[in-house]
Hints:
Blueprint: E1 8-13, E2 18-25, E3 29-37, H1 44-48, E4 56-60, E5 64-65, E6 70-71, E7 93-95, E8 98-99, E9 108-110, H2 112-118, E10 122-125, H3 129-139, E11 142-148, H4 157-163, H5 175-179, E12 185-187, E13 194-200, H6 205-213, E14 216-222, H7 227-233, E15 237-240, H8 251-263, E16 267-270, H9 272-280, E17 285-300, E18 305-317, E19 325-331, E20 337-342, E21 347-350, H10 361-375
Parallel strand pairs: 3-4, 4-7, 5-8, 7-10, 13-14, 13-15, 15-16, 16-21
Antiparallel strand pairs: 1-2, 1-11, 2-10, 3-11, 6-9, 12-14, 17-18, 17-19, 19-20, 20-21
Helix pairs in contact: 8-9
Amino acid sequence: MLDKKERPAILMFQDGTYFEGIGFGATEKVSGEITFSTIPGSGYVEILTDPTYKDHIVLFTYPSIGNFGVPDKLKDEFGILKQFESDSIKIKGLIVNEYCEEPSHYESIRTLEDWLIEENIPGIQWIDTRRLTQEFVINGSKLGLIQVFEAGEKPNIDALKVEVQNLEDPIKKNLVETVSIKNVKKIKLKNPKGSVVIIDLGVKNNILRTLVSKNIEVAIVPYNYSYEKIMEIKPNGVLISNGPGNPSLYKDTIETVKNLIKDGIPSMGIGLGNMIIGIANGSECYKMTAEHRGGRTTVESATDRCYITFQNHAYCLKDVKENDFKQFFHDKDDNTNEGLIHKSKPIFSVTFNPEASPGALDMKELIFNKFIELMQV
C-alpha cells in the first residue's frame, strides 16, 4: 500500500502497457524515447549529463541508483567540469528499480533527488528494470512517458493512454542542434604539443580532459561550422564528437567531413562521429534494435584482439564501403561495425567511448595516442 507521503508515478508506453511505481525527483510529466544503460551504480552522474542521451528517458539496469549522491560542480585548471560530462542534466526522465535516499560518499554534497528536482527531472522507482531491458534488447527502444503525481493524487490511466498515442518520433529531430556549442570556444595551453578542432555534436567533457592531459590545445566549434572556417583555425587535426540523434540528418557536418577526407586532414570520429565519417564515405546508417548502451566486447578486426569498451549508440553503419576505408573494430557479439580506418590517409573512427572504457587505460592510450601520432605533432 502506498505511503501517504509517497508520490504515485506512472510509466506508460505507446502500446498502452504501463507500470505503476513510486515517484522521486520532480513532480512532472515528460515524454520521449525510452532506452537503457547498463553502467554500474557509480556512473549515473556521467550518464545523466551525457549529451548523447539528450531528451531520452533512461532506464538503469543496476538495481540501486543514487548510493553515491552527487558531487560538487568543481572545475579543473582549464575550466572543465571534473565529474560531469556537460553543464546540466540532458535526459528527460529516469527509471530505476530502487532509488537510494541516503547516499554515502566523501565527495557527495547532495542527493540525486535534490539534483533532479533542481533541474525539473522526474524519476520512477520500483520498476522491474531487468524485464524492461530484455524487452528493449529484443524489440528496440520505445516511445512513452513518465508522470510523477502529487502525494494523494490519483493517476488518470485512460487519459495517459490517449496522450501517449500522439508522441512525436524523435528520429526526425535535430537533437545535435540543441546540444552543440553556438560559438567557438578555445582551451588554450601554455606550450601545447599541437591543436585539435572538435566539431561539437554533443562532445563529452571527458574527451576534452583527455586531449588537454596530452598537451593538446582545443578549439570547439558548432556542428554546422564550415570546412573553410575550420581550416582558418589551422589545427593539426579534427575530432568529430559523440552526440545524439539520427546521423543522416546532419548534412552540414557530413559535407565538412567529406572535405576532411578528400584533403587528407588528420581526423578522428567518436560515437556519432563514426557514423558521420561512414556516411561521408558512402555508407548508410540504420537504427539498431539491440542498442549498445554500456559495457561491450570490442574486437580489433585486423588482430582479433578484444577490449572491454563503454558504448552509447542507437545507430550503426549498415555496410562498410571498403573503397577507401576498411573496418577497424567490430562488436564480438553481434558483429556490427565499431570503427573505420582509412587505407592511406590519417583518418579513423570508433563508435565506442575510448575516454571512458572500463579498464580503459589500454584503450584510451591506444586511440588517443594513435590520433596524436597521425597528426605528427
